[in-house]
Design goal:
With 340 residues, the chain is an alpha/beta fold. 29% of the residues lie in helices and 15% in strands. The protein contains ten helices and eleven strands. It has a nine-stranded mixed sheet, with helices on one face. A two-stranded antiparallel sheet has the order 10-11. Helix 4 packs across helix 6 and helix 7 packs parallel to helix 8. The longest helix is centred in the middle third of the chain and has 17 residues. The radius of gyration is 20 Å and the shape is globular. The two termini are 37 Å apart. The structure holds iron/sulfur cluster (2 copies). One iron/sulfur cluster binds next to loops. One iron/sulfur cluster (SF4) binds next to loops.
Amino acid sequence: MAKTELSERRLLPRAGERAAPAPTHLTLETSAACNLRCTMCSLEEFYAPKGLMTLETFERCAPLIPALQSIDFGTTGENLLNPRLMTMMARARAISPGLHMHLQTNATLLDAALAETLVECGLDVLIVSIDAARPETFARIRLGARLDDVIQAVERVAAARERARARRPALHVTYTLQAANLGELPDAVDLAARLGASRLNVNNVEVYSPETLPEALYLFPHPDLPGVEAETRARARANAIDLHLPLFHEEEIEPCRFLAPGVSWDGEVTPCAALSYRRRYFHRGEWRTAPQRSFGNVHREALLDIWNSAPYVAFRAHFEAGRFAPECHGCARRDGVICG
Ligand code: SF4
Ligand code: SF4
């Protein structure tokens, strides 16, 4: 039986079964490996082997695509390391012409050919991590990368888009804010605008190592923060950039905004990025260990069956009732200081 036929059948509940609506957003961890070693990255903290998603794993997820509104091709890791990524994106676009496709990258591998392909396959949003406005700071934080190379890569995509007379992909920039790059945030707004970005997502650094601890501005408020924040907002307004800032103090948000199924590179289905791997992190004055919460593996069950399984339905019921699940205890995302 063809996989799409299987999906069409399973999108309907079996007799006597109450199915939850299919998810509208999916995150695929196309790569759990990276070519950089950024100082604040959690990749080295993950207690799991790191790999690249195969086409077989992607195809196990593909039956859900017709029901989706949007898809993220990646969570952690550098997604352009996966040589199968463009095939996956082209296939997703062929299945669902209206699907909103997002791709996050450090842009260090984004050469001219890849830039053309991203435009051709109809990527909607390219999200590039730029954690400094000055080359020296960038090189100190994003070990193994150079700011100039990243700028040139973004310009290659803009040129490919021009040549194709295409409107997409839009460019979003992400900035992991820490003590080391706080002062450069307003200039990063200008840089993002120069590169043609429509949106700048600023996130606090999540603390995975003792070295990163003093970098977390929500744990150790910096006297310059209010002034930098005001200047950043002013520059964003002047540049018409859609600016997203995290909270700089812990304050519980409800409901969780980050709840959407994710499929890890090896097929595990997890409810959010925070629960995608078992890992150690610092929050609210102590070191904690977040569990991995997998509801199944797409190589053993259909993704929609996992979504509709009793444990996953029970997990989501906590949020539908306005509560957090027990697994969320201590999650920095529920405090609004970490986004995504
Ligand atoms: S580019 Fe991203 S995944 Fe790679 S080391 Fe840096 S923060 Fe981690
Ligand atoms: S609060 Fe944290 S652990 Fe719970 S669902 Fe949201 S992101 Fe995941």
